[in-house]
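Example record

One chain of 179 residues, shown exactly as stored in the release files.
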Amino acid sequence: MKRFISVIMLMIMALCLCSCEKEMTPIYADDINDGTYNIEVKSSSSMFKIIDCELTVSGEKMTAVMTLSGTGYEKLFLGTREEADNASNNQFSYFTETDEGKYCYKIPVEALDKKISCAGFSIRKQKWYDRTLVFKADTLPDGALKFNPVPVIIIITAALLVISAAMIIIARCVKKRGK
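Predicted structure tokens for this chain:
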């Protein structure tokens, strides 16, 4: 009986760990209320540090104005450096300069919590560098996201599993005492 209880408890713990592990699930514009929000952006490179980002959601579209810490990139391209080499000028996002001398770029955003390929063109080296960006949904302010029932469903399912396992354990204990 102790072995059975141990196995059940291990299964419950494994289920809880699996359901609590945070996976990146893309968040699209139709999951976010229209508005403009400050949001954090994770970059794959310390040489491409985003110090500020303003996300604008309107209808089914999102755009971001990203401010970089430095002034080393002339333009950005959403895609790889190989794709950027074959792209036309109207596909690039060129910088605008802030009053503080920082470079800002306006780009479309397909989804939050999704890896996005981005190539930056170095002014000094005159070549493209591949970067990966992730716009972090968990940095949106409260009320920005529309209701998402998935976490509620996961919690209810986990609770039902725990209750079911407890009922099985109790029934077996009661049955064993009756013998």
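Notes: The helical segments are 2-20, 81-85, 150-178.
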